[in-house]
User: Fold this.
Amino acid sequence: GQNIDQPTEMTATEGAIVQINCTYQTSGFNGLFWYQQHAGEAPTFLSYNVLDGLEEKGRFSSFLSRSKGYSYLLLKELQMKDSASYLCAVRSSNTGKLIFGQGTTLQVKP
Amino acid sequence: DGGITQSPKYLFRKEGQNVTLSCEQNLNHDAMYWYRQDPGQGLRLIYYSQIVNDFQKGDIAEGYSVSREKKESFPLTVTSAQKNPTAFYLCASTREGRGANVLTFGAGSRLTVL
Assistant:
């Protein structure tokens, strides 16, 4: 079957670093996406990984290991506005569809 | 500015009524999608369309219908056959082709059945 797992909730302190993990099992792999979603709003694109390794974009980085079916999103220098849900999604190369995890709700505390 | 517009933002419906959610994009994207989001669950695909006048069922199409008469528009009708329609509905679009094909989302429509 197809499955994507993320922790349901995480809490971190302003200014700290947090790592949100995502493991996946899909029928074929054609890219992994991370989206940020504030409560009641649309998801916004953060990062895309299709090859193994680390992609860095300012305070946010995303890592992928295809052999392990594993990715993480790393958020540095946390700010209060980073409190949101973070969605991991994998595109199946067999179907072309995006499969979403249930999302990780991150709460940043002062 | 280019983007996706969903309306209405909030909608209340009585049981047994059909409702239609609007989705319009001016990004010149080829493909459009409808997702449903429930608390504690990932986004689930309802319907998608890759070209005008063609669409396919997603994973949870029962009780929903769509049309794609224009490239810019992809309305979703939630019919009375949908047993649990209260949810947050998200419309999205992509430009199909090589590359990441990143989804751009609308702001969402929250439907509540009374």
User: Anything to note?
Assistant: Chain A touches chain B at residues 4, 8, 31, 33, 35, 40-45, 48, 50, 87, 89, 91, 97-103 (CB under 8 Å). The mean pLDDT of chain A is 94. The radius of gyration of chain A is 13 Å. Chain A is about 0% helix and 55% strand.
